[in-house]
Amino acid sequence: MKKEVQLSICISTFNRASFLGETLESILPQITETVEVVIVDGGSSDGTESVVRNYLDRCPRFRYHKQVENKGVDRDFNEAVSLATGTYCWLFTDDDLMKPGAVQAVLSRLLSNPGLLVVNSEIRNRDFSRILQEKALPFHEDRSYSAAEWSRFFLEVAGYCSFIGGIVIRKDIWDRRKKEPYFGTEFIHVGVIFQEPIHGDIEVLADPLIMIRYGNAQWTARGFEIWMFKWPRLIWSFRDFTRSEKEKIIREEPWRSMKELITLRAKGCYSFSEYKKWLAPRLSTGNKKVASMSISLLPGALLNPICYMYFTKKYKDAGTLHIDLMNSRFFYKNIFRSFNNILPWRKK
After folding, report:
1. Domain housing 130
2. Are 116 and 193 in contact (CB under 8 A)?
3. Burial letters for 298-317: b for 16+ Cβ neighbours within 10 Å, e otherwise?
4. In whole angstroms, how large is the CA radius of gyration of the chain?
5. Domains identified in the chain, total number
6. What angle (nearest 5°) sits at the alpha carbon of residue 130, between those of residues 129 and 136?
7. What is the pTM of this model?
8. Does residue 43 lie in a domain region?
9. Binning pLDDT at 50, 70 and 90, where does residue 318 land?
């Protein structure tokens, strides 16, 4: 008899043919009769379908659904969960890797029937050659949160939950909750989780079972809008937590911080166009407005190395912050590369 599906690995993807194969390859050896992989493609045009078809031929536990048009990551993940048949859904990313034994470790922990399971991650650089952070969640041992510890879970884990790949949730909980209000937030899973307390224990696995390919997000160009507006707006929409609790996750209006704007300018995420679109309409005339505009016009090529040296001195290991600064168009190697590409002899 066909065994009941216990775990559905749900993946939303769009134009990631160059990364998705490596992700699926890390999952394939771990598939059992009680595990399926559901891939929703948001209308890719880069060969993603050919990559997935290869795995459909190799394993009947892989399922593929291609959308006619791209509806956004939130709708596509929701579609993947809707198509899933498992008791639990692991919302996984399309460019990160599962460590060997990850699926079995998750299945073992699901035997206790938690409402939500959060899987820790190891953060690496883009080609996985270097570990930037051994544990995204600095937990030395597994943790469990009861319904009465809802606020503690929020304070300790909500920030990490911005990474969708670490979320394993009961499908019936997902199905019962509101999803539409979170379409377009980029973090539908966070809205589903924190809109109201989860009944049943919440488990967190301390050992990292995922390798994150840091610096490869598709939304980098929209980073200012997402981290200055969408993420804080979402966190501050939850009614179960106090202002001080939400403040510990993210300030309600982080874009008012001049230090934050300087850092974002050095990363290449903040320019005069972001100032005009997002800040000018919100700031009244005065010092704040002048300062915010001035920062957007600072020479990024000068600011980038200053911030790099500052954070190197301030933090023993700046980790992902260093990667953000190095990925910036203002990083000196990227400037030289761009300049070299426009030289006349490069066009021959």
Report:
1. 7-213
2. yes
3. bebeebbeebbeebeeeeee
4. 21
5. 1
6. 125
7. 0.91
8. yes
9. low
